[in-house]
Design goal:
The chain is 43% helix and 13% strand. By secondary structure, the protein is α/β, with parallel strands linked by helices. It has a single domain, classed as 3-Layer(aba) Sandwich (Rossmann fold). Strands 3-4-2-5-1-6-7 form a seven-stranded mixed beta sheet, sandwiched between helices. It binds adenosine-5'-diphosphate (ADP) and magnesium ion (MG). Its EC number is 3.6.-.-. Keywords: Hydrolase. To B.subtilis soj. It is an enzyme of class 3 (hydrolase).
């Protein structure tokens, strides 16, 4: 019966790239905790680690020794479904794998190089509600693969001036892909690592709301020591400190995401 339904409805799965070429803005933290919060809310979620550093697996408490993941699926050595690791209820991980670094360096021969991820995903993971791709902090071939494979992007942004500068560069890249692929991304932003006591924070937030009206998710993720502690225990914030403010930030962010709730500029 289930099988019949999934064949009729085909690709209900939404694929979202969590992207920002700047490192340390909270891409992996958002991936881990948003995915877990969505899974806890009953959604079927797959998190793909497209960063050769492999921090997503570590943050979820999965220790791997040179084990393949999305790298082998992109290189067509394995089917992507073989690379799935069940990590929590409703949440599965596809780790990065040691060959991901080589993929970033691929030159012309293995063409088309930009379609490796899209092809690996094609027709697979249709039993999922959401597939999130935790992107590396670069602007190379892996990012091109992520942008070609998705129609939706989620951009974590910190509340400092240089992050704002970097964002215009990222939006330039996104626009170039929109032009050459003739598609328009649904782009959402999440204010991450927000430090309310710094004046620059509210200035950056105002600029974001002015430049991206209706695109900044309603919940602000605040800077908090517990969020930095979680990865060393291999736990998400919902496990490490379920009653913390940060855990409720991420539960609320998951609801924003599901309900399309965004922040509005205060007058
Ligand atoms: N809201 C936050 N509060 C405190 N520390 C955070 C927060 N978000 C991320 N961090 C920490 O900042 C560092 C970089 O975050 P990370 O999510 O790995 O960024 P990225 O994936 O964009 O490089 C990590 O050590 C992480 O634990
Ligand atoms: Mg990361």
């Amino acid at each position: 019966m289930r099988l019949g339904i999934s064949i009729i409805w085909g690709e209900k799965v939404k694929v979202i790239a969590i992207i920002n070429q700047k490192g340390g803005v909270g891409k992996t933290t958002t991936s881990v905790n948003l995915c877990h919060a969505l899974a806890e809310a009953g959604k079927k979620v797959t998190a793909i680690d497209l960063d050769p550093q492999g921090h997503l697996a570590v943050s979820l408490g999965v220790r791997l020794q040179q084990q393949g993941g999305i790298d082998e699926a992109m290189l067509k050595e394995k089917n992507i479904r073989q690379q799935i690791i069940a990590v929590r209820n409703n949440l599965q991980l596809i780790p990065s794998g040691p060959k991901l670094k080589e993929i970033e360096q691929l030159t012309e021969s293995r063409s088309p190089r930009g379609l490796l991820l899209k092809n690996a995903l094609q027709g697979n993971l249709n039993d999922q509600d959401f597939v999130f791709i935790d992107c590396p902090p670069s602007a190379g071939l892996l990012i091109a693969n992520a942008l070609i494979a998705t129609d939706e992007i989620l951009i974590p942004m910190t509340s400092d001036f240089l992050a704002l500068q970097g964002l215009s560069h990222l939006m330039g890249t996104v626009k170039r892909f929109e032009k050459s692929l003739q598609k328009k991304y649904k782009a959402l932003l999440v204010m991450s690592r927000y430090a309310p006591t710094r004046r620059i924070s509210s200035q950056v937030l105002s600029s974001l709301l002015a430049y991206f009206p209706g695109q900044v998710l309603a919940t602000i993720i605040r800077e908090a020591a517990v969020l930095a502690e979680c990865p060393s225990f291999g736990k998400t914030i919902l496990e490490y400190s379920p009653k913390s403010r940060s855990a409720s930030d991420f539960r609320s962010l998951a609801n924003d995401f599901l309900e399309g709730r965004v922040m509005h500029e205060s007058k």
